[in-house]
């Protein structure tokens, strides 16, 4: 039976050349905080990786900001929010922000952002969740109305992990910076898929993760603009400018750097090839399965992402049926994770529960072929037909 892994937004496989490089680099075992030869060798390779990550996000002027290595995107997001939390709890930490006590974010953010924001709301902090339109785009007029002299911080994801919609970060940033607030961008899903321009965007913080760009799991990075506040999330030693204590994860960071270098070099090829295959899949499903809905923006969307609702069929049942046929995708509903609640992203764009519960996310990447796409187009229509016939809806 053919196996088709088409869940690259969840995680990517470790590329063979990156795996080989990591294995080779295991010989570089020194503690990068040590001054002897082995330590200096490890430190040099970590700095090479830092430079590669900086290049991927478009940081040409290395004096403009810093790259802080973390355990992943979620930790990086938490570092930024914890900093804002400390400012709210003790405004004297940042005297310029004394009158600012409001946080803005989007209704479709990743849980590592949205759940923190909702928790802050429960604590009584002034957190406002901004709406998006039917395609998942931030409603700019709502942002303009929400921004004021009390806004401390705004967090917006560059591209959504479920529906792939890409935000106009440059335009959003201009409005946020005009208001005087700090601006954070979660670019975990965008990195390696669309160009990132940290200097053009003028953001204060940006997060990315290695395992979304064919690197190892357990390592990510946070960009911090020079002058933007950041307090340690893990205290201890002096590592990462005293902002993230702990012995360096040599192998992970080395692999991250190599993955970032490859992603930057292959960006245009990736965009061209994956978008062509994504369009082939969309057209095939639209042609062969009646009454489906494509979720996400028709143009401003990640080249590899296709989110489809199949009303009359449960997403979890579709997912399990596809898995039996060798197709590994994701459900757009949270059912698969043990929750009966539909996807917060699909609900935010106005999809009803039936559409939200019956959605599947196909996310493509290196290794997907035309034959894989055609296999999905061939075997999925009978699955949907069978499940719809069984449905009591």
Written overview of the protein:
The protein has helices at residues 16-25, 37-56, 73-89, 111-122, 140-146, 169-179, 198-201, 239-242, 250-265, 267-288, 315-324, 344-348, 353-357, 370-390; strands at 4-5, 65-70, 102-106, 126-130, 151-157, 182-186, 205-209, 220-225, 293-295, 305-309, 327-328, 330-331, 359-363. It is of the alpha/beta class and 393 residues long. It has a seven-stranded mixed β-sheet with strand order 2-8-7-6-5-3-4, sandwiched between helices. A four-stranded antiparallel β-sheet has the order 9-10-13-12. Strands 1-11 form a two-stranded parallel ribbon. The longest helix is centred in the last third of the chain and has 22 residues, at 267-288. 47% of the residues are buried.
Give a quick precis of the structure.
With 393 residues, the chain is α/β, with parallel strands linked by helices.
């Amino acid at each position: 039976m053919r196996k088709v892994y088409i869940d690259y937004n969840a995680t990517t496989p470790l590329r063979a050349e990156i795996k080989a490089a990591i294995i080779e680099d295991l010989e570089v075992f020194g503690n990068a905080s040590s001054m002897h030869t082995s330590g200096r060798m490890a430190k040099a390779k970590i700095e090479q990786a830092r430079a590669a990550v900086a290049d991927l996000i478009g940081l040409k002027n290395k004096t403009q900001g810093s790259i802080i290595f973390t355990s992943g995107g979620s930790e990086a997001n938490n570092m930024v929010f914890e900093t804002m939390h400390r400012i709210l709890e003790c405004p004297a930490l940042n005297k310029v922000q004394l009158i600012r006590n409001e946080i803005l974010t989007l209704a479709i953010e990743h849980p590592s952002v949205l759940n923190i924001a909702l928790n802050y709301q429960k604590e009584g902090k002034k957190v406002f969740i901004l709406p998006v339109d039917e395609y998942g785009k931030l409603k700019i007029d709502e942002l303009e109305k929400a921004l004021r002299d009390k806004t401390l911080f705004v967090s917006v994801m560059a591209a959504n992990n479920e529906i792939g919609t890409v935000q106009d970060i440059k335009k959003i940033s201009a409005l946020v910076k005009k208001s005087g607030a700090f601006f954070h961008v979660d670019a975990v899903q965008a990195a390696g898929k669309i160009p990132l321009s940290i200097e053009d965007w003028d953001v204060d913080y940006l997060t990315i993760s290695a395992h979304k760009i064919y690197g190892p799991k357990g390592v990510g990075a946070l960009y911090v603009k020079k002058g933007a506040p950041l307090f340690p999330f893990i205290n201890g030693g002096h590592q990462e400018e005293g902002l993230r204590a702990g012995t360096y994860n040599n192998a992970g960071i080395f692999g991250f750097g190599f993955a970032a270098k490859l992603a930057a070099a292959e960006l245009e090829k990736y965009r061209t090839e994956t978008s062509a295959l994504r369009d082939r899949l969309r057209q095939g499903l639209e042609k062969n399965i009646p009454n489906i809905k494509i979720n996400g923006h028709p143009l401003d969307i990640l080249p590899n992402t296709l989110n489809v609702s199949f009303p009359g069929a449960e997403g979890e049942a579709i997912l399990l049926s596809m898995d039996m046929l060798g197709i590994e995708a994701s459900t757009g509903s949270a059912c698969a994770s043990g929750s009966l609640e539909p996807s917060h992203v699909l609900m935010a764009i106005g999809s009803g529960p039936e559409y939200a519960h019956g959605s599947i996310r196909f996310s493509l990447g290196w290794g997907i072929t035309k034959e894989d796409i055609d296999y999905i187009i061939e075997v999925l229509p009978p699955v949907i037909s069978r499940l719809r016939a069984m449905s009591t809806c």
